[in-house]
Specification:
The protein is 24% helix and 21% strand. The protein contains 15 helices and 24 strands. Helix 3 links the parallel strand 11 and strand 12. The N terminus is likely disordered. InterPro entries: DUF5722 (IPR043780), GH (IPR017853).
Amino acid sequence: MNLMHFRSVQRITAAALLLSMSVLSFSPALGATVVGIGPDGKPFQPEQQSGAELQKTGERGNAAGAGTDQAEESSTATETAELSAVIANGRVELKGSVSGSYSAEDGKLYLFAMAPYQDSLFGEPIANTAESGQFSFSTELRAGSADTRLYDGFAVAVWKDGRYQEISNRAYITNPETVAGSRLPYQAPLTKKGLLVQLDMLSDAFDLGVKHVNVNFNLAQITAGSGVDYSYRGKTYHFDAAQIAEYDKNISAYSGKSMLVTGIVLNGWNERMPELIYPGVKKSGDAFYYGFNASTKEGYETTRALMSFLAERYSGENASCGRVTNWIIGNEINNNKNWNYMGAMDMDRYVEEYVRAFRVSYTAIKSASANARVFFSIDENWNDPNADEKLKYSGKKILDAVNAAILRGGNISWNLAYHPYPYPMVEPEFWDDHSTGAIVQNESTQIIDFENLNVLTDYLCGSAFRDPSNNVRRVILSEQGFTATSASRGNVEEAQAAAFAYAYYIADSNPYIDALILSRQVDAPAEVRTSCAFGLWACRMDVGDAIVATRRRRIWSVFRDIDKKAKTLEATEFAKSVIGISKWSEVVPSFRWRALEK
């Protein structure tokens, strides 16, 4: 299954929503009230709401029902707190600081633990300490139990005017890998060369020397049957035995050839497990996949279990299953309408719900496979002036907002999967895309493709985007292709091969990019009909949408030899005249093979 199968000639765009999101100054549940027993022994305030319920009522961070008038009349806490949470010595250790005028009536700070779907404070505090500028808490992790705190969001509150008032950010554990069952080291790639492989042509992929491969996991398909049982946190989940056996066979074959496998987790429409779909969302003819749901108890529990199952099974501990080293959660999340459908919503709300599910997925994956890497993906629409702000958003705005939302809950090691298709994608020669006016060499650019790819990695080098160890986030180019057929010019196979060579050298010479995974090994007829003939092989066009290879293209041998020191420059010599250069080092910054050029 190829994510490009349903793309049209006109590239799916993303929208720009001018939204400023600070890292720690905004707490979505600030001033929230709770239900339980207060320090004075009296009951207080009504039930909290889940994220989905809050969306319906429009109430963010305030309890609903009886007691609302009291909340409006009472004064608000005047202090704020910053909180962080880590696992240390088998416990959850929390540290924080308080700023502003202290207003706690009893001089104490109270610690609450809530499930990810609980937006307001809920239940009773699990610990308390004296209010001071610096504070800490230590609480049980309950790592292997059904009521584990591994996924919980922690918050600090003060008691004021007969209610607890939340004064901190919602802090999540940032090192779930501490409890992972698999601690295999990260599988370092041999080169950056990757391909979307046609499953009935594995021997050809092996001949090509593929080092990276994508595998799509559609949750609707793997849960469509039974035969494989998985128990997680007190519940048993069922997976389709035939589907899982096919994944085991293919992934173990890839792993056996030292290929680095990237798993793309996709949420297809699911009648069997409707809790995986965001509440209120109806099936849409425009949506190929749907947003993940962690905003309800059932959705959260099922999402974490499915992610844990995949990460555990494909951790590499069992050679018969193989290993998935990278995990991408969803596809092109700046496109709500087609690839991550959650219904029309403003970007801040959309990002909040995506990050809620992403963090649950991250925790599930990392707590099973410590050194797996977890990614989200965006397309090439960096600043799209035609965005509608409800169903499509600009990649840059989404990147900024996701980063800010994650930082509020505690920095984790997310990474980015990017799709730098040429603009327009029906022409392979990306090196002249600036002539469209959509490509410039700075972050104001409308499009980021291979012509200005450094803009993306330069942007990620900024201090605001660093990971918890202050390293630059890793980037994989997980989907792109260069057409061999132009609607206006016909056969452009030489240009296709030249474009791949140029693009690969750009990626190979960029230290922040780990892979270029080309779409695809064989043309897909549905794509060819829209002048998107991306394959190393041409295909038959008389068998409907079935993918049947016919002949190799020029790009095939270029792909095979591009990462071989002894053959790479010879294999790409022809491309220099196509592009109009005399040396690769003229146009590729820090060209890897500069010393070998004549």
